[in-house]
Design goal:
By secondary structure, the protein is of the alpha/beta class. The two termini are about 20 Å apart. The protein has a single domain, classed as Lambda Exonuclease, Chain A, CATH 3.90.320. It has 8 helices and 9 strands. Strands 2-3-6-7-8-9 form a 6-stranded mixed β-sheet. The protein is about 45% helix and about 20% strand. The mean pLDDT is about 90. It has helices at about 10-15, 20-25, 35-55, 65-80, 120-135, 160-165, 170-175, 180-190; strands spanning about 5, 60, 85, 90, 95, 100-105, 110-115, 140-150, 165-170. α1 packs across α2 (about 20-25) and α1 (about 10-15) crosses α5 (about 120-135).
């Protein structure tokens, strides 16, 4: 990935702490190493994401290892009108990759998958940035969802994926939050490009 892009993770860092954003772009060696507990959370999140993909059997997985390959494959697969896993968009130094883009008659739905059991403010901020980038790149976004673990589900035998997850419509919250995105983007880009 080119060095001076504002990705959604960097955008969220900027909201959390502008100094953290600057360090993550300009002085990475000052950031602490990922510890065992953090790595475990990352691994759990990956597993949950893989389970969520199974709810979309005709979905297309886009490999993420090759940055430009992911962007090019995303463009190519959009025309197939199938759910896309890990599609990426880059425009005007902004970069975002979705967990799941789901096609609709009039465009696409964003589905962000989390291993948590509820919607958090940071999830709304995350999806608002995604929506902003995707629409800037020319995509029509209809609805935004957060798919998270259903803490009322009790497994009996095989995992029932449709019961394991709760899919919450966060479109209204995202639309309210997106009002703050352009000004933050301007501020954060200025900060990382210094």
């Amino acid at each position: 990935m080119p060095n001076k892009l504002l990705s959604k993770s960097k955008y969220l860092q900027g909201i959390q702490c502008s100094r953290l954003l600057w360090i993550s772009v300009n002085d990475k060696q000052r950031l602490p190493e990922v510890d065992e507990a953090q790595q475990k959370l990352f691994n759990e999140g990956h597993i949950v994401g893989e389970f969520a993909k199974r709810l979309f059997p005709d979905g297309k997985n886009i490999p993420t290892e090759d940055f430009m390959g992911n962007l090019n494959q995303t463009k190519k697969l959009l025309s197939e009108n199938k759910p896309l896993f890990e599609p990426a968009f880059m425009i005007e130094r902004l970069y975002s990759r979705a967990d799941i883009l789901e096609p609709t008659k009039e465009g696409w739905n964003i589905i962000e998958v989390k291993s948590s059991t509820e919607v958090k403010d940071v999830n709304i901020q995350d999806v608002a940035f995604q929506k902003y980038v995707y629409e800037k790149a020319g995509l029509k976004i209809n609805k935004c969802y957060l798919m998270h673990i259903n803490n009322q589900y009790v497994r009996q035998g095989e995992i029932e994926l449709d019961k394991l997850f709760t899919k919450e419509d966060i479109s209204i919250n995202v639309q309210e939050e997106i009002q703050s995105v352009p000004e933050r983007v301007k501020k954060f880009l200025k900060m990382i490009l210094i």
